[in-house]
Design a protein that fits this description.
The chain is mostly helical and 254 residues long. It has helices at residues 7-29, 34-38, 42-47, 53-56, 64-85, 87-112, 122-135, 151-168, 172-208, 230-233; strands at residues 118-119, 140-143, 147-150, 252-253.
């Protein structure tokens, strides 16, 4: 799959790498603990009103491999989505998914009475994966880097695996719930926008010709259409208007 680096994707890649180096330098050489300040820490968020953590946690990562895997997926799928939507909508979607993932994580920690910090961009990345599966359903991705399958199948299998992990994998369930929150946010945002577009179009049509009879082929229900027939449309793009750190404190990264 060709990699397409668009402006917002490029900016996110640079920001995450730069912040990772700042984080590691400050922690190892200056005795700082940036993860406690800018990671998503339930006690700090609720008691200390550290609301900024819902935005900043997605820029921090636990180690090099954590950073590499998240940014690799962002580079692979982010450019296609940004090219289809535009930079502004892409960024709104990205940070909305990250925020919902963080909220799901906070709620689970409150329910379990835990205070485990979380860092990582995976909530947003999983939201992008959901968007990719809905927009480019017929594209082929490599599941586990080995098995080729269509993007729409890849996304639902991934969701099923995360759901299973959230039920049976102990502390790993915390990260899985955040992943599922990002995917659910991505689905809701795309479906909600499509529903609103159909509603507004039907309302305008009824106002312009209230007595017009419904013709055969008129849309009755909202559907999310996968990218199944690219030749007919003439374009690949849709039409559009965690876990442990080195210290003794448990942390979740995703």
């Amino acid at each position: 799959m060709p990699v397409r680096i668009t402006p917002a994707v490029k900016g996110l890649l640079i920001a995450c790498v730069a912040i990772f180096f700042i984080q590691q330098t400050a922690d190892q050489f200056f005795g700082q603990h940036l993860m406690e300040t800018f990671g998503l820490v339930p006690s700090s968020f609720i008691n200390g009103r550290a609301i900024w953590q819902l935005f900043t946690y997605s820029f921090l990562h636990a180690d090099v491999m954590h950073l590499f895997l998240n940014l690799l997926m962002l580079a692979f799928i982010g450019g296609e989505i940004e090219a289809a939507w535009g930079t502004a909508r892409f960024l709104r979607f990205y940070f909305a998914c990250a925020t919902v993932a963080g909220i799901c994580y906070l709620l689970l920690n409150l329910w379990l009475w835990r205070d485990v910090p979380m860092v990582g961009a995976s909530g947003a990345i999983y939201g992008l994966l959901m968007a990719y599966g809905l927009l480019f359903g017929e594209r082929v991705l490599l599941f586990m880097m080995l098995f080729p399958m269509k993007a729409r199948h890849f996304v639902w299998i991934l969701a099923a695996l995360e759901f299973t992990t959230s039920l049976f994998s102990g502390r790993a369930a915390l990260a899985s719930v955040a992943h599922l929150g990002g995917m659910a946010a991505g689905f809701a945002l795309i479906w909600g926008r499509a529903a609103w577009t159909v509603y507004r179009r039907n309302a305008q049509a009824s106002q312009s010709s209230p007595k017009r009879k419904r013709r055969k082929g008129d849309a009755k229900h909202l559907k999310l259409v996968f990218d199944r027939d690219r030749k007919r449309r003439g374009s690949d793009l849709p039409d559009s208007s965690d876990m442990d750190s080195s210290d003794d404190t448990p942390k979740t990264w995703h």
